[in-house]
Amino acid sequence: MRRLFPDPAEVGVLEALEEFPPRAPQGRPFVALNMVLSADGRAAVDGRTSPLSSKSDRAMFHGLRERVDCVMVGAGTVRAEGYGRLIKDPDARARREALGLDPEPLTAVVSRSGDVPLEDAVVGHDPAELLRGLEAERGVRSVLCEGGPLLTRDLLAQGLIDELFLTISAQLVGGEDPLTMVRGAPLEGPTGLDLVWILEGEGDLLLRWRLRP
Question: Cα separations (Å) of 110 from 36, 64, 80, 160?
Fold first, then answer.
């Protein structure tokens, strides 16, 4: 994989994530959002993200999971994507333990109904309350959000996302009324982003931004 910005070099995903996650803000865990989009802005193909994902994107997806205390996701995404065990690779589990983490990150699901097909998940209906509870009751200091678009909108509206990892897939999808990265009511105003790095793999662009306060 090539790093294009800030300093061009050949890098691996784990090398690129060596200093991730940063220190958590006061009063809640650090939250990063990871998403993949087609080059024309579509977040899914036939309701799933897997057709957009390349080997490079999957490496980033798993690398991010490997370094956080918790993965947060909306109930609709759990059902659409077939969530189960988060870390299957024994080497990845060993690397987590070497970092002082549990072999498997906690799963947190945002659900209005509470009906979630995952036995060990922590479930809540409000993302902010769920984050506070994860920190206070479970000692969670870092969370990776994997969507979907409604949960993403709620977190953005409440100022609860600190970083965005976005893969621009080298594909065009098309279609009318497509699923996009953020859905729901418009945000109060544009959210500024500061670019941290750009990687390239298999023609995809993998970008990391910090959200401005």
Answer: 20, 20, 14, 14
Would you identify the CATH topology of the domain 28-211?
Answer: Dihydrofolate Reductase, subunit A (3.40.430)
How far apart (Å, rounded) are the C-alpha atoms in residues 93 and 104? Answer: 7
Q: Give me the residue spans of the domains in the chain.
A: 28-211
CA distance 105 to 73: 13
* Amino acid in position 203: G
- The pLDDT tens digits for 19-65 are 999 999 999 999 999 999 999 999 999 888 999 999 999 999 999 99
Tens digit of each residue's pLDDT (9 = 90 or more) over 84-107: 899 999 999 999 999 999 999 999
Q: With 0.90 as the threshold, say if the pTM is over it.
A: yes
